[in-house]
Amino acid sequence: MTTVALDTGIGPLLRSWREQRRISQLELALRADSSARHISFIETGRSRPSEEMILRLAEHLDIPVRERNALLVTGGYAPRFARTALDDPSMGVLREAIDRLLACYDPYPALVLDAMYTVVAANRGMRLLLEGVSEQLLTPPVNAMRLTLHPDGLAPRILNLPEWRADLLAQMERQIALARSAELRALYDEVAAYPADPAGTAAATGVPSLALPLRIAHGERELSFISSIATFNTPMDVTVAELAIETFLPADRATAAYLHTLMP
Question: Strand 214-218 vs strand 244-250: parallel, antiparallel, or unpaired?
Answer without folding.
Answer: unpaired
